[in-house]
Amino acid sequence: MKVGYLGPKATFTELAVKRVFPELEFEPYRTIPECIDAVVEKQVELAVVPVENALEGSVNITLDYLTHEVEIPIIGEITIPIRQHLMVHPSNKEDWQNVSKVYSHSHAIAQCHKFLHTQFKGIPFESVSSTAAAAQMVMDQPEMKTAAIANELAANEYGLTIVQRDIHDFDYNHTRFLILSGQKVDFLSVSSRGYKTTLMITLPSNHPGALHQVLSAFAWRKLNMSKIESRPMKTGIGNYFFIIDLEMELDDVLIPGTIAELEALGCGVKLLGSYPSFIVDLN
Amino acid sequence: MKVGYLGPKATFTELAVKRVFPELEFEPYRTIPECIDAVVEKQVELAVVPVENALEGSVNITLDYLTHEVEIPIIGEITIPIRQHLMVHPSNKEDWQNVSKVYSHSHAIAQCHKFLHTQFKGIPFESVSSTAAAAQMVMDQPEMKTAAIANELAANEYGLTIVQRDIHDFDYNHTRFLILSGQKVDFLSVSSRGYKTTLMITLPSNHPGALHQVLSAFAWRKLNMSKIESRPMKTGIGNYFFIIDLEMELDDVLIPGTIAELEALGCGVKLLGSYPSFIVDLN
């Protein structure tokens, strides 16, 4: 079985898929739509794409593609804590505080704002296309005494030495991925921390209180939401749809009953998936 | 008066600030936290940062920084439609269909998935750190016959010729920016399409229906929401806060009454700003 993921290699997405599917084959794709198309067209059996707080790839593209373009169910979710490390070429490891420049992805640089602002004040940094690309640049130019901000996998992949661990500002930041597949998959190798069910809901008209009415259908059944997000429809400003994550597996009564009621009220409801949720800790 | 914005030059953010503040001075910043810090520390009077669908900069960093790190009000919002064009070096404009490679930011490449998949099938593309950097690369290597996907400003700034307009997949995609400032600013030069008020709300405890109760306070007053988004608190998984945009200016009765009720129920409510909203059309 083959897993497609958003590349390049040594990114957080690769970290996630290697932990959850250690025994499978992997194929990196260059964009989220290409990766999702690959599973729709059966070039791969599984696709793993970012859906929250991703460094690589726009989360909105994932949601928009899943809701507007393709019919492929979500069969799992992976959450990994974001941990950024400072790394240098092994020959510069004693002298790392005197690096001349720091390379990373622009979001990773922003995530390490306090560290760079206090401990590396005045040292220039440069955004490159991914944290893995930053690691490669540092490996390729040892004489320049540069550093990269990247994850553990990038340090291993490119042979860099981590000189300062966990330099990100917020400890509880995480990145979230969806596993997409047209077939049933057994996740025996990882332990789940629970189930989620994701629905896409469009409102009958943009009137005050319509969303409140929708949420009533969940609330009186005590269906807990772990996420709600409004996104503009691709049909113009002013029309919205909502992505709602419920903290339970699809059952025979409560969720189908809610969907039926919402449809009777004129809402559009699309079940994007009901799936186990995994947390992968990197240490 | 000086406006700080998220660089580099010739990005959508620069497009936005130049349209709304044509007569002011500009200063690009390298990250969103640096740009917000600049207005807090009064190096600039205004800061413009992306908050939705941005190519450059993580929207989550903007929301997290505004809600957790600083106290600076939102004083305006700018929405611009996303329009991506294919551009080449002027010397290659007759032969643009035979380019050897396409450069752009990874999100822009994903936004033009259908165009690349159908009209440029098989031609390799490469992600670089911004659409402006892509335009610069194409300008610097005319003999390589490369193309960039970028906006109109980048074509002008780097002297490229647009050979195919509006190659993005979705016509109604837009990107949204917030204007932050500690002082009152007059937006006489642009016409507003209305007002918004943005609130950050934390729930008393993560129990089913708490959000529904919060929304009830808005719904019975017929306060229309244009956006709702849940975000994890930086204190660990399982705690959420909500960002709610109301489609009205802060009044003396309805919004203050809602806030007082929510606080009485044990919610935390922070008013992030009440501000005019502008749409900038690029043609």
UniProtKB/TrEMBL annotation, chains A, B:
The keyword Lyase appears for this protein: yes
Stored Gene3D superfamilies: 3.30.70.260, Periplasmic binding protein-like II (3.40.190.10)
Molecular functions (GO terms): prephenate dehydratase activity
Metabolic or biological pathway: Amino-acid biosynthesis; L-phenylalanine biosynthesis; phenylpyruvate from prephenate: step 1/1
Keywords assigned: Amino-acid biosynthesis, Aromatic amino acid biosynthesis, Lyase, Phenylalanine biosynthesis
Keyword field contains Manganese: no
EC number annotated for this UniProt entry: 4.2.1.51
Catalytic activity line of the entry: prephenate + H(+) = 3-phenylpyruvate + CO2 + H2O
Residues covered by the Prephenate dehydratase domain: 2-182
Broadest EC class assigned to this enzyme: lyase
Boundaries of every ACT domain copy: 199-276
Domain of life: Bacteria
NCBIfam families in the record: PRK11898.1
PANTHER family: PREPHENATE DEHYDRATASE P PROTEIN, PREPHENATE DEHYDRATASE-RELATED
Protein name: Prephenate dehydratase
Source species: Neobacillus ginsengisoli
